[in-house]
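Journal club side-thread
Mid-discussion, someone asked how the predicted structure for our own chain would compare to the paper's figures. Pasting it here so we can look after the session.
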Amino acid sequence: MPSVAVIGLALIVGGVIALQGSNFFTAGVVIFLAVLAHNGVGYFLGYTVGRFTGMNVAKCRTLSIEVGMQNAGLATGLAVAHFAIYPHAALACAVSCAWHSISGTLLAGWFVRRDEKQAGAAVSLAE
């Protein structure tokens, strides 16, 4: 099912970019910076609130990714259906959809590499 989801998201994002491509080049930087800020704040607040409420590290990481990766695919569909007179709304959602997938994967990979380094350091200390 992950491959079906990726294909579905690619079709949604591709359709929006195909329809609103000219708007992307006029407001793309502002949209991308807003998406970066939204995504980064979500990751940070998710992890921070988890730590503040006493969750363990694994739960904090999960919360961080869940809060940071909002459902941009759904937002894209809703923006196209209900905010057609505001083409930048759908465009921002489409950019979010792509960026959240990339940044979530990078963050999860960073968590894994960090755990591997810590496990390697613990093994070398034990020897």
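Post-session note: Residues 65 and 105 are 9 Å apart (CA to CA).
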